[in-house]
Structures are given as structure tokens and as C-alpha cells.
Recover the amino acids of this structure.
């Protein structure tokens, strides 16, 4: 399986990119299309994993300050998990954070994803919010 990690560029790329984000992170809780976006999309770096024409993984990076980058909206399509795709997306986002001069990356991890981020050098620094009244999040950080 050949996996290509790249930025979405065309309108079609972005449609597939947001569709996967919605399908994995919002649809299971009955949230409508559009709920997968926030107000920082235009200033963010978007990365996706492609297998042929299919987008199978996504992730996003933005700066909170000149020192601190934040990752949000990491999602890998169900049938493609556990094969290193999330790791490739994370590494690319971290590379981009370094290029922008950030010293650390922060994120709010869903409880089920905490182990994934720990394997990549992140540590839990605080208890964060509960999404949809049920998904506990943990604030995690990694020094670059
Ligand atoms: C978390 C997620 C992005 C990781 O991507 P991935 O491509 O499955 O991850 P990788 O293959 O690079 O790494 C595998 C690790 O991810 C973790 N993981 C979390 N959920 C997993 C799942 N459903 N299937 C497989 N691995 C999962 C495991 O810790 C695994 O480590 P292990 O091999 O030691 O058990 C992906 O599983 C996913 O989209 N999950 C659902 C949505 C989500 O929780 N997003 C994160 C929001 S903070």
C-alpha cells in the first residue's frame, strides 16, 4: 500500500479532507456537516494521507504563539488504523511546526488516543474538557 502524505490543495482535496474529519470525529455523535470546522482553518496547515484517490488520514496544525503550535483534528479512516498512518501525519505536522520556529506542540487528546501520542513523545500535562458530555480529553505536550 503506497501512502502519500501531502497538503490538500484543490477544492476536491479539501472536500475529502473535511469529509473524513467529520466522518471520524463528528458523525458518530450525530453532529451535522460543518461542525467539524473551527474559525482557524484559513490560517492553519492541513496535512492528509492519501492511498490512490482516497483520503485515509488527516491532521491540522496552527500556532498559538511564536513558540507554541497546536495540533487538532487528527483522524484516520477506520479500516486504515494501526498501520502507522497517524504517526506519519503527526511527524509531518511536527516538522512543519519546527520550520515555523515553534518550540513545543500542544494538543487535547481523546482518552483513547493518549497512548498513541505518548508513543510519539507527548506527555499528559492536564485534564482537559469533556466533548459531547462523554469523551474525556487530556492536554498533552511535546518539546520540539
Ligand atoms: C488516534 C489515531 C489518529 C491514530 O492513527 P493510527 O494511524 O491508527 O495510528 P498509528 O498506526 O500511527 O499508531 C497506532 C497506535 O495508535 C493507537 N490507536 C488509537 N486508536 C486506535 C485504533 N482504533 N486502532 C489502532 N490503533 C489505535 C494505539 O495506541 C496504537 O498503538 P499500538 O500499536 O502500540 O497499540 C486513529 O486511531 C484515529 O483516528 N482514531 C479515532 C479518532 C481519534 O481518536 N482521533 C484523535 C483525536 S485526539
Amino acid at each position: 500500500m503506497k501512502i502519500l502524505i501531502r497538503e490538500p490543495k484543490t477544492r476536491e482535496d479539501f472536500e475529502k479532507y473535511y469529509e473524513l474529519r467529520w466522518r471520524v470525529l463528528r458523525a458518530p455523535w450525530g453532529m451535522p456537516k460543518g461542525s467539524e470546522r473551527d474559525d482557524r482553518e484559513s490560517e492553519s496547515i492541513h496535512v492528509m494521507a492519501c492511498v490512490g484517490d482516497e483520503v485515509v488520514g488527516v491532521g491540522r496544525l496552527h500556532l498559538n504563539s511564536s513558540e507554541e503550535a497546536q495540533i487538532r483534528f487528527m483522524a484516520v479512516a477506520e479500516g486504515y488504523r494501526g498501520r502507522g498512518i497517524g504517526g506519519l501525519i503527526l511527524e509531518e505536522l511536527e516538522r512543519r511546526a519546527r520550520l515555523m520556529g515553534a518550540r513545543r506542540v500542544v494538543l487535547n487528546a481523546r482518552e483513547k488516543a493518549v497512548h498513541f501520542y505518548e508513543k510519539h513523545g507527548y506527555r499528559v500535562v492536564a485534564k482537559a474538557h469533556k466533548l459531547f458530555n462523554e469523551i474525556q480529553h487530556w492536554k498533552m505536550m511535546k518539546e520540539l
About this structure: The pocket of coenzyme A is lined by residues 24, 74-76, 81-87, 109-110, 112-113, 115-116, 119 (CB under 6 Å). The helical segments are 11-25, 85-99, 114-119. DSSP finds three helices and seven strands in the chain.
